[in-house]
Amino acid sequence: MRSLRFRLPALFLVAVLVAGLVTALVAARLFQDWTKERTVRDIRRQAAGLAQLYSAQATQIVEQGQRAPSFAGPRLERAMGARLYYVGVPLFPGQLSGLRSLESELIDWTLINEGKKQTFEFAPEADDRDFLAVAHPLRLDGQTFGALVVAKPKAQLQARFLGLMKRSSVAFVLGLAAAGLLAWWLSRRVTRPVLALSRAADDVAARQYDVELPALPSGDEIGDLADRFSEMAARLAESEQRERNFLMTVSHELRTPLTAIRGHVDALQEGLADDPEARRESLDVISGEADRLARLVGDVLDLAKLEADRFALREEEVDLGQLLGQAHLSFAEEARRRGVELDIDSCDEFVVMTDGDRVLQIVSNLIGNALQWTPRGGTVALSLSETSGAAMITVADSGPGIPAELRENVFRPFYSKDGGQGGTGLGLAIAYELTQALGGRIELETEIGAGAQFNLILPVRPVRGAPGAPAPAGLPA
């Protein structure tokens, strides 16, 4: 009973049942009112016709001395399916009218004397049934001398109502059966893909991401859900693969410097490096590998903080021109050692509100990546400009460029075409995440054989102390 396949048709049938009952009650009430109104209208018409007939007969008796009509009494009752009563002075003096008599107290003589008809209900003393009646005034020479009453048993109305209810009940049962079949078919149609999605979710929970879903019609909610589920499974598979690669790469990157450090430490401990020059070389290797290890750990921690959105940013006045000059000075010696020319365009003051340390970290990562891929004798160019109200720092190199199939991977962690020999493979990933945190973006322009150009675009916010004023640009023409 907890299954959706049961609850959906059950809920559907309950809704149909409630709607049917409410409709039946309203229809029954309306039919009762309509039947009563129609019966009263028929009785009024019959009473009016008979009253006119008896009034005319009474006039003929007075004027011509004719006798009472022979069609009166039971014949009229059988023909009409009703009872006829007379209330008032003798209708035909000295003769029998053939009509039943009725207590005069049941009649509202005020209405009758005014020539109006009266509708009422009564129960005769010799009968246990209730009657619906209409009293019609009988007039002679403009004077009311009695009332003709046409009455029908209310049981006739109930018989009509019961007949309608029986036919309605049969129709309702048939409709309920048809609704049940439709509900069962719909529940099967809806729950079958839901059950398939449930089984697929169990597979995904068990880390089995290569799930296959049945072909579902697209465009409805279930089809959209299946499409989103397939996308989710694919992304989870990709995420787990990236996590596995991440762990393998981190373990490899950590093991490489540790292996080198351990080897040289063992050599020093065992006295294999007695020569001062050999000891100095071993210590230099240990120091370099320790620095590499520290950079790797720091980069991993920074990337983890950025991805977990736990990275604190400051907001301060930063002169981007001065910051770019500082980055140029920091990498000048490494560029000279690599035989690469590191150029920078002259930049005037360009002050914005941002986190200077993080911008410097981004620029440093971009310059380090450019130097890594620029061959000896090549050039790395730095520039600062303004574009569409934003600041753009450009780092362009004359390296080999990046193939089209690899461009979307350059900002992924541990991605490196040289197998990580020139760095940790986290520089561009950290630069990308930091840029997103600062509200900016990094654009890549590259062509095979013509180098690569990274454009760091940062939003320009007004500097404190000059509300509403734009940040000074002062850029070269």
Keywords:
single chain, Beta-Lactamase, alpha+beta, rod-shaped, Heat Shock Protein 90, 9 helices, disordered C terminus, about 475 residues, Helix Hairpins, five-stranded mixed beta sheet
Tell me the major beta sheet: 5 strands, mixed
CATH class of the largest domain: Alpha Beta
Estimate the strand proportion.
15-25%
Rounded average pLDDT: 77
The residue fraction in helices comes out at 40-55%
CATH architecture of the largest domain: 2-Layer Sandwich
Protein model, in words:
- The structure is a single chain.
- The protein is α+β, with helices and mostly antiparallel strands and 477 residues long.
- It has three domains: 4-158, 2-Layer Sandwich (Beta-Lactamase); 221-307, Orthogonal Bundle (Helix Hairpins); 316-459, Heat Shock Protein 90, CATH 3.30.565.10.
- It contains nine helices and twelve strands.
- The strands form three sheets. A five-stranded mixed sheet has the order 2-1-5-4-3. It has a five-stranded mixed sheet with strand order 7-9-10-12-11. A two-stranded antiparallel sheet has the order 6-8.
- Helix 1 packs antiparallel against helix 4 (154-205) and helix 5 runs antiparallel to helix 6.
- The longest helix is centred in the N-terminal third of the chain and has 61 residues, at 4-64.
- It is rod-shaped, with a radius of gyration of 51 Å.
- It starts with a helix and ends in an 18-residue tail after the last strand.
